Amino acid sequence: MGFCSPVCKILRRGKYFVLLLLSLSVLAWIATFSGETVKSLQVSSATTRTLVKDRDSLRDKVNSPAPDRLKTPPPKVQCPQESPLLQGALKLSFESSLKLKDVEIENKGVTEGEYEPPDCKSRQSVAILIPHRNRERHLLYLLHHLHPFLQRQQLHYAIYVIQQAGDATFNRAKLLNVGYLEALKDYSWECFIFHDVDLVPENDYNLYVCDKQPKHLVVGRNATGYKLRYKGYFGGVTAMTKDQFLQVNGFSNTYWGWGGEDDDLRIRVELQKMKIMRPPADVARYTMVFHKRDSGNEINKDRMRLLGRTPQVWKKDGLNSCSYKTLSIERLPLYLNVTVDIGKPQS
Questions:
Q1: Is position 102 annotated as part of the catalytic site?
Q2: Cβ–Cβ contacts within 10 Å for residue 43, how many?
Q3: Which of 104, 258, 270, 277 is labelled catalytic?
Q4: How do the pLDDT tens digits run along the chain, 347 residues long?
Q5: In whole angstroms, what is the distance from residue 347 CA to residue 343 CA?
Q6: Is 261 considered catalytic here?
Q7: Which of the following is catalytic: 288, 298, 302, 341?
Q8: I need a surface site. Which of 60, 135, 173, 258 has the fewest CB within 10 A?
Q9: Which of 116, 262, 264, 317 is labelled catalytic?
Q10: Which of 13, 49, 291, 305 is catalytic?
């Protein structure tokens, strides 16, 4: 017992010392671990910032515009002043066996009546307006020849056929006003060709483009021995820019029946100090597809009286007073068929 007591005391003191050393070691280890953790967190934070920065950089690269060579094909060059595809005077054929499907197959580049040259940019965009009622055969012959004719001229064009609904007296002029207004809802056409359905151009050097002045394209036709019908004739097929037609306030809306409306337009042009241009007589030639006068398109016996008042009424009778109701718009393969109710003549 005497011996054990001092030894036990020494052992107890040693145990306390060991525990103290272990405690200090644990504290030292905790301190070391904490420092490494802070460093690790700092590194991790820096890495995260780098990744975020890299991700933003990648997003910017992805969203940045692609080089032009990848984004769009190079722009088309402008079509030449004179198309290399022109063939001049051609012999026209009007086969009774011709079907609309045949014409569609021949003009696969035409979509909903519209065509653009595949390899160059057209110098003008042209809307062809054809007033129509019950002339399906004439329309077929015209489409058969007119589509390739216009394509050889390397034009961006669309053909609009404006159908007069009902059985009221025919009004060519008002239908052409409607065609102009409706076509501009599709596209800002630069040039308008006002085209009778029974006149087929014979020579593709007779260019369907507009000029600085209004242009009359029918110098001669087979029915008149290829001579101008009369000195001031401005009918059949005429070409005016969008602005020229607007400046004269379009056609009069008051000519119901055959005759007078083209002379009225000529007077409007002359009142604006414009000069009518014509291509050479040997180029501006047409074949007229013969037919009897349509029922509902009798000669307008009031036309001379109406012509006498044109200088007084042109500003308020025309595009700005053209009222009509659009019944349907059919986007057919070869043309846009616009059917309208234009009312009836006032009694």
A1: no
A2: 10
A3: 258
A4: 444 455 445 445 555 555 666 666 656 555 554 454 444 434 444 444 444 444 455 455 445 554 444 566 678 899 999 999 999 999 999 999 999 999 999 999 999 999 999 999 999 999 999 999 999 999 999 999 999 999 999 999 999 999 999 999 999 999 999 999 999 999 999 999 999 999 999 999 999 999 999 999 999 999 999 999 999 999 999 999 999 999 999 999 999 999 999 999 999 999 999 999 999 999 999 999 976 666 678 999 999 999 999 999 999 999 999 999 999 999 999 999 999 999 999 86
A5: 12
A6: yes
A7: 288
A8: 60
A9: 262
A10: 291
| Crossing angle between the packed helical segments 172-186 and 261-271, to the nearest 10 degrees | 60
Catalytic residue among 114, 116, 182, 196, which?
Answer: 196
Residue 144 among the catalytic residues: no
SS3 346: coil
SS3 11: helix
Does residue 216 carry a catalytic annotation?
no
Catalytic: 262? yes
Residues 6+ apart with CB under 8 A from 343: 168, 323, 324
**Catalytic annotation, pick one of 116, 198, 202, 263:** 198
288 included as an active-site residue: yes
